[in-house]
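Closing statement on the S-adenosylmethionine sub-project.
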Amino acid sequence: MRNKIINSDTLWVSWKNDAEQFLKEKKEYGQVIEKYESKWKKNTKMNVKEMRDFCDGCTAYPITKAYGGHYFSPLQAIQIDALLSTLPIAANERSVSLAALIHSASECAASPGHTAQPFQPTKTAKKYSFGAWKQNVFDHAANALKKIGSRHAKKIGRSVVCDAADMAKDLKRGDLVFIDPPYSGVHYSRFYHVLETIARGSCSNVEGVGRYPPPSERPQSDYSLKTKSKEALKTLLKTLSENHVKVILTFPKEKTSNGLSGSVVSSLAKKYFTVEQKTVNGRFSTLGKKHVPAYEVILTMKPFAKK
Ligand SMILES: C[S@@+](CC[C@H](N)C(=O)[O-])C[C@H]1O[C@@H](n2cnc3c(N)ncnc32)[C@H](O)[C@@H]1O
């Protein structure tokens, strides 16, 4: 966590130089430029099959091996590998740079919205894959670095990765919780796996059209199971109320694919909190399909006064 701006200009110059130097020394980079970078622009299916096979053989490059010729062009993929391998060492610089790289990959990925499945080089969809493959990973990373580096916390805090139910147990009176719980009946790991691999720096062998890692690397959540989502949310809200925590929760108004809806969530909340409800006309992603206008409820919840 940092409470100061990071000078992204100097950081970028040195990171980019290191990445370019890294690439210069690698024979695979030369092959990518020579064999594929100009060829795929001819847009034949054969080229894509050939480049996928080539990338699959790039075992020393986790992003190229897993996603080259799928979510990313071979060039984009090996550039992401180079930027990953040359991340700055100092903690703050490293985490800002990694965040910028994840941001860049998310903007360049050839997939609709989240990284659930890449576009395929079919007659109708190839314009989307190739449109994304033309994006410059370095430019996107430099822009993201500027944006992220200029923002900082006003007060040093900490971030924790854990199950929401566990975090709720540690909270106390005076804490304010913001919850944006799952509304998809499909586990979110399906949408984030490519970005998670970049965050971790590696993944096990991927398979299928979506290039998914094995199930052990794809977290499952009760909130995304129709049969368990209501009970999971109820337990979470009960714990928060017992710990006298104030909560702000957002949820789509209409019925969602995990079986919940704004009114179901609101009824659950009213069991444990005094609830103020606002409905807003926002936009939310349908995770894969195009963005559609939709209403969302914002619940502001105060725990009942202690008897
Ligand atoms: C609707 S999304 C929130 C999106 C987020 N507000 C954003 O802007 O990226 C729900 C999130 O809850 C996470 N999630 C699912 N089960 C969870 C659990 N048991 N504990 C904590 N987070 C969980 C999912 O991975 C997903 O990122």
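Strands lie at 176-179, 246-252, 273-284, 292-303. With this model delivered, the sub-project is considered complete and its resources will be redirected to Aim 3.
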